[in-house]
Amino acid sequence: MDKNNQVINWFPGHMHKAEKILAENLSMVDVIIELCDARIPYSSRNPEINKVINNKHRVLVFNKSDLADPIISQKWAEYFKKNNVKALFTDCKSGEGVKQVITAIRETMSEKIKNQAEKGRKIANIRAMVVGIPNIGKSSFINRCAGRAVAQTGDKPGVTRAKQWLRISDGISLLDTPGMLWPKLENQTSAYKLCCTGAIKDDIFDIGDIACFLINYLRKHYPEELKARYKIDFTEDDEAYQILERCGANRGCIVKGGEVDYTRISMLMLDEFRGGKIGKMSMDDLEVLEEN
Ligand SMILES: Nc1nc2c(ncn2[C@@H]2O[C@H](COP(=O)(O)OP(=O)(O)OP(=O)(O)O)[C@@H](O)[C@H]2O)c(=O)[nH]1
Ligand SMILES: [Mg+2]
User: Whose CA is nearest to atom 14 of ligand 1?
Assistant: First the structure.
């Protein structure tokens, strides 16, 4: 169980549809809003996106910033600034940062608006397509922009199944799209991180493997938070499944006969991690750029 050796097949049928939606609607939109996960700024970006969207204007947004480690987010913000990449951080739960994205969409379009104005034309409506991995908050972002619930949201990947144009108040229309993952999975570590953050459906992988991956990550990067949350201790010699076992025992995840229920404790830990209950944590530090 502690060996992270399963190969994750993460490309369910509806993802083909998402790719198709992106390709089919590209010519109709002015701007792409690439919504990524602030906890995994590297692993949540589609390496194919540049090829797909070509030279379209793009606004890069890292959502769920309320769950990410603020020190690591700061490092990423500085990295993007240094590289002249406009990157914004949002929290769609509170709405923080959303206004700045709308401003960035307008700024991106300012030249086109000016050019059109010189020709005596007016761009009445800016069209932007929101793309990103499943469950990252694309629909929540649109609802925040609109100031009301216009798009359906849910705490699991695969909620939005079809495209939907939604006009948000001030002359901008947003296209909500289904979550998209890339079909070729070369980086298994990124895949595990995407499982931990909830971008991939839980029934696609072995939950125990993912929990062990999470434990190995936390024991290295956030050991005190892990110990405090589950009231456990561990040494370097402990295997991940032994730590998982201790967490399970302390949380009463026990089956008949006193054995630990690994599935239950794995699910519980992943839920707590995803909900930020263990702490504000990120799984991609800047070093990930050197490793890949
Ligand atoms: N903590 C936190 N939760 C968020 C944020 N944005 C969205 N969520 C939650 O994340 C879950 C997924 O949100 P959705 O808006 O449905 O995500 P989506 O990207 O449209 O998902 P799919 O349509 O399934 O691809 C919901 O439970 C939201 O409440 C955020 O900034 N912070
Ligand atoms: Mg959605």
Answer: 137
Cβ 72 vs Cβ 285: under 8 Å: yes
User: 120 by DSSP, 3-state: which?
Assistant: coil
Distance (Å, whole) CA 19 – CA 46: 12
List, for residues 225-261, the tens digit of each pLDDT value: 999 999 999 999 999 999 999 999 999 999 989 999 9
Q: Which domains does the chain have, with CATH numbers?
A: 13-176 (3.40.50.300), 188-291 (1.10.1580.10)
pTM (two decimals): 0.93
Q: Tell me the CA–centroid distance for residue 44 and ligand 2, in Å.
A: 16
> What is the largest distance, in Å, between two alpha-carbon atoms of the chain?
79
Token digits of residue 144: 């925040």
Measured from CB, residues less than 6 Å from any atom of ligand 1 are 63-64, 66-67, 91-93, 134-140, 153-155, 157-160, 178-179
| Structure tokens that stand for 194 in this block | 């995407």
Question: pLDDT for 253-292, tens place per residue?
Answer: 999 899 999 999 999 999 999 999 999 999 999 999 988 7
